[in-house]
Automatic annotation (TrEMBL):
GO MF, one annotated term: lyase activity
Signal peptide, first to last residue: 1-30
InterPro entries, per database record: Alginate_lyase_dom (IPR008397), Chondroitin_lyas (IPR008929)
Region (Disordered): 412-440
Protein name: Alginate lyase family protein
Keywords: Lyase, Signal
Organism: Kutzneria chonburiensis
Domain Alginate lyase stretches: 97-378
Pfam families: Alginate_lyase
Length: 440
């Protein structure tokens, strides 16, 4: 056996010994687990699974072993991920204060965005410069909304943080972690550039309101990606200190408090469609990251009756989402929230994958309902969609296959990969793979 092979065996033995300790990956509990002391040591921290909230930390660790062994699928996915990370390492950093338009609060540290599907109904005149009143055109993006950069820059920043943290985790290259830490501090922590922990002015409608509860969806899944990124960096990344970790947990705790107590947060939690599902996923993930697993568990448990019972019909269709003008997009989009919420559930002992509602609907059936179109194209989708994108549900198909869905597993090879490649093998959680920047 070569020296390299012996080293690989040694690494594998060490990792398996750490994994055998009674330690729940991803669960941020108040009481330290038995392995926490060992994992706090600099040498061993990189051999311990990160305490992620959506991603499975143990699986990330196994992926590192697969890469060490040269496993082809994992290596291909990592190569595609690194192409994105190599762009992100030279981009940004981004900040909410980099905008001309001042929020109604007068503070540029407040996040600001405009409702994407609302349009002026009158000609713009000196007496009516905005063309008020605004009217809704569902699924049709008003290009004027892009003049406020916070939404687009948030997406770039959060995606970069996620890609860079994963790139560092798998390669160990310091530049990836250093850039991820800089992006995190710039958006959330540095006094001159940080965002205030609220979404009081998200998706406002000119002439009608300053903000709305449904604007929270702009953060919902991308912020949980940032939480996972921070958890990954906390396994020993250069430039991400214990002070940074504590400060970001403090910011996240303040944000969670706003989400759960503000009227906008209450409005979003009461939504029956994908907005409500994403709100559950956001609050559960943030609670878990900030050391409140009981809160996270309660949110996930309530999603059985509160979400799955209402949202999924016996045949797997999603009535709330097929009522939209972009039916395939929104059916896929809601599954992003449901499957990510199910992954949070695994961290806190709640099985959403195994739950079937009284009508016979389940997350598995909702995924299976999309399979004919995901494998065969738009001709197999019998609802209108303004911009059908066949690969949109690929990650949810992956997640269902991982959960034991045989139909999903059989279909995987027939679902086309998105332009950037199939990244699920190295970041195994659902993402909205079509154009989420237009989603509202």
């Amino acid at each position: 056996m070569s020296l390299r092979s012996l080293r690989r065996v040694g690494v594998l033995a060490t990792v398996m010994a750490v994994l055998s300790l009674p330690m729940a990956a991803g669960v941020a509990s108040a009481a330290p687990a038995a392995g926490d002391g060992l994992c706090s040591l600099p040498v061993l921290s990189r051999l311990c699974p990160p305490k992620t909230v959506v991603l499975d930390g143990n699986r990330l660790l196994v992926n590192r072993l697969a890469l060490l062994a040269g496993e082809k699928t994992t290596r291909t996915a990592l190569s595609d991920l690194l192409k994105q990370a190599d762009v992100a390492v030279d981009a940004g950093p981004w900040t909410v204060v980099d905008k001309e338009r001042v929020p109604p609060s007068g503070d540029k540290h407040d996040y600001l965005s405009l409702a994407p599907y609302w349009w002026p109904s009158k000609p713009k005149t000196p007496d009516n410069p905005l063309g008020c009143p605004y009217v809704q055109r569902d699924g049709v993006l008003n290009p004027e909304t892009t003049a406020v950069p916070d939404k687009a820059e948030r997406l770039k920043a959060f995606s970069a943080i996620y890609q860079l943290s994963l790139a560092w985790y798998y390669t160990g290259k310091p530049a990836y972690a250093q850039r991820a830490a800089l992006d995190l501090r710039t958006w959330f922590l540095d006094p001159a550039t940080k965002m205030n922990p609220n979404l009081n002015f998200a998706q406002g409608i000119p002439c009608r309101n300053d903000g709305r509860g449904i604007g929270i969806i702009e953060f919902s899944y991308t912020f949980t990606q940032v939480l996972d990124a921070a958890a990954i960096l906390s396994t020993g990344a250069p430039s991400w200190t214990k002070g940074d970790e504590a400060a970001f947990k403090g910011w996240s705790s303040d944000f969670l408090s706003w989400l759960r107590t503000s009227q906008y947060g209450k409005d979003e939690a009461a939504a029956k469609n994908n907005h409500g599902t994403f709100m559950d996923m956001l609050t559960a993930g943030t609670a878990l990251y900030t050391g409140q697993p009981a809160v996270a568990k309660d949110i996930v448990e309530q999603a059985k009756v509160g979400r799955i019972d209402h949202q999924i019909a016996a045949d797997g269709s999603q009535p709330e989402e097929v009522a939209r003008t972009r039916t395939f997009h929104y059916s896929s989009f809601n599954l992003v929230a449901l499957t990510r919420l199910a992954q949070i559930g695994r961290h806190v002992g709640v099985d959403l994958w195994g739950y079937t509602n009284p009508a016979g609907g389940s997350i598995v059936k909702a995924v299976d309902f999309l399979l004919p179109a995901a494998t065969g194209g738009a001709a197999n989708w019998h609802y209108p969609d303004l911009n059908f994108t066949q690969y949109a549900p690929l990650d949810s198909v992956h997640a269902a296959a991982d959960a034991g869905d045989r139909q999903a597993r059989a279909a995987l090879s027939q679902v086309p990969a998105p332009p950037g490649g199939d990244l699920y093998p190295v970041r195994p959680a659902s993402e909205q793979l079509d154009d989420i920047s237009t989603t509202g």
